[in-house]
Every structure is written in C-alpha cells, then in structure tokens.
Amino acid sequence: MANISIAIDCMGGDFGPSVIIPAIKSILSNSSSFAPDSISFQLFGQTKEIDTFLSDLKLVNHPNIEVFASEDDVLMTDKPSVALKNKKKSSMRLALEAVRDGRAHACVSAGNTGALMAISRFILKMLPGIDRPAIISSLPTYQTGQVYFLDLGANVDCDEKRLAQFAIMGNELCKGLDGIESPRVGLLNVGEEEIKGSDKLRKAAELLDRIDGINYAGFIEGNHIFSGDYQVVVTDGFTGNTVLKASEGLSHFLISRIKQAFHKNWWTRFIGLLAKPMINLFKDEINPERYNGACLIGLRGVVIKSHGSANIDATACAIEEAIIQAKQKVPSKIRDSLLKASQNLD
C-alpha cells in the first residue's frame, strides 16, 4: 500500500506525458532510494494523451497510478493572472488542489513558472510569516555533497527580513534532505568583510547572528559557491537567477570545448578514447539535469518545479526530489523554525 502520493501536472513543459510517463516507470522499476510500492502517482491532464503513453509502456491499470482529466492547459506563454483567473480546471491547478486537500503529499510541474508560483500561492497559501515563496535548488560542489542556493528568481528585490527567512528555509531543507545537523549558511556578497555590500545585506547578517539554530558563517563571494565549504547560500532572486543561468551556460561551454579539443586530429581522438571514462564522469558531475527539480519553498505544501525542457532522467530527478521532501515533511519543519525565529525577525 502506497503511503506517499505525488500529484503531477502532466501537461506542463515542452514534452508533457512523453517524458513524464517514462520517468514514472523508471522510478517504479528502479528506485534505490525508497520502495517503489510505497509511492503512488496522481496524473492530471488530457486523459487520451496520458493513456496513450501508459499503454505504450504497459502501465495501464497500474495499482500505483491514477489518472484525472483536466479541461484546460496552462500554456508557457500565459500570464500568471490569466492562468489563475481563467484556467481553474487546468492540470496544474488540479494537481495543486490535490495537495491542498490532502489527497497528495507533493506536486510536480514543468509548466509556466510564473503561473505555478501564482497558483501555488493562491491554492496552498504561505507559511506563517512568509510573504512570497522562494525558489531553491541544489548545485554541485568541489567536495562531496551539494549546496542549496536561493532565491533563484521568485523575488527580484529582497529586504533583510526576507533574506533571513530564506536562510531559515534553506537551513531546514538542507537538514531534512541531507541530514546535516548544522549546515553552514552564507550570504552572497561582493566581499567577505563585514563592511562590504549593501545596507540590506549588512542588516540581514545582523539578523542571522541573532537567530538560534542557524550556523551563519558570514558573507561569501561568488567564487566560493561551489567550494563545498557552505551548504546553504542566500541571495536575492535577480542575483540568484543570474548565477544559475551563468553556471548552466558554463557547464555546457566546458563540455562543448572538451569535445572540440579531443576531435582536432587522430592523436587527440585517440587520447580522447582513452580518457572517455573520466570525461563521462566529469560530464555527469556537472550536468544540470542531475540537479533538476527546484522547490517553491515557503508554501504550506511541497511543490517542485521541473525544467520545461527536462528529459526523462531529469524529470525523474524532479519527481524523486518531491518524494524525498514529502517524506521529510519539509514545510512543517520550516514552519516550526520560523515560529522559533519570529521574535528576531520582527
């Protein structure tokens, strides 16, 4: 009997059910992180299209899969206000309502980010003391492990109170998912000295120094994000999104240049053949698909945003992220930490 149920917006993203259904089959067949029989899936979308892929993959009438019809789709070009007001029977909204009503423990969508943010906020509501959700995701580091980075674009301009809230939320997410008792938290700045940066950053640092349960390690410069010395890095949404996109672009640039270098002549192709295992390992470690699945943190439920162009493996990563967060009851832990820190944030 399944004890975790994941609601999935099957019509979101560039590929819809054509990547979502195979990703679900992969999880049900091969997961090593949890017992597949303990997970069930609620699929929301155009039933004919979903059923076609279920049939092709021999998943029709699977005991852990249930299909629910939607009447509309949220398009990638839709304004958030249009999606919220006019598409009340969309696959995205129905999936979020399943979480709100307690029928599902988490929602996964590869759809329109702005619409997902607006509908999630309206349907699930915010945790006490949080005005808007932030977007958080993990990134690889030089050392073993990963760093949680937020905000990735939901809040372009942030005051010191919101930055401190981000730190609390990222801290609890890291503790819940990675089992780190006291994650090191850093504020992204133009220098590590206390006098560097804007007023809001210095005030945020003062707030974090006063909050029990946060291992605030001070300001951090951009070249230390991937060092592994910090487990949570906090910044505003404009800066965070810029760093994320630049990092993704750099990873593709490095992979492309390595391929070019090993295809210059017969000798470099031979060397490349010998080095192929190490090259593949490097590509795997910096591949953004491994880190697909950003969390809309600060909501009263688990919502995971998958990349719109995610392939099957990347989609499976996003779904597994939702399962882990649901098991760890991350929103409840964040709520408790926010309540404890509330007097320092006022």
Could you explain the architecture of this structure?
The protein is α/β, with parallel strands linked by helices. The protein folds into 2 domains: 1-133 and 298-329, Isopropylmalate Dehydrogenase; 153-290, Isopropylmalate Dehydrogenase (3-Layer(aba) Sandwich). 47% of the residues lie in helices and 16% in strands. The protein contains 11 helices and 11 strands. It has an 11-stranded mixed beta sheet with strand order 3-2-1-4-11-10-5-6-9-7-8, sandwiched between helices. α3 packs across α5 and α4 runs parallel beside α5. 45% of the residues are buried. The mean pLDDT is 87.
Topology record:
Layout: E1 4-9, H1 17-30, E2 39-45, H2 47-56, E3 65-69, H3 80-86, H4 91-100, E4 106-109, H5 113-124, E5 134-140, E6 146-150, H6 160-178, E7 184-188, H7 199-210, E8 215-220, E9 232-234, H8 237-261, H9 266-286, E10 294-297, E11 302-305, H10 312-328, H11 330-345
The count of domains is 2
Tell me the major beta sheet: 11 strands, mixed
Q: What is the mean pLDDT?
A: 87
The amount of beta strand, in percent, is: 15-25%
C-alpha geometry: globular
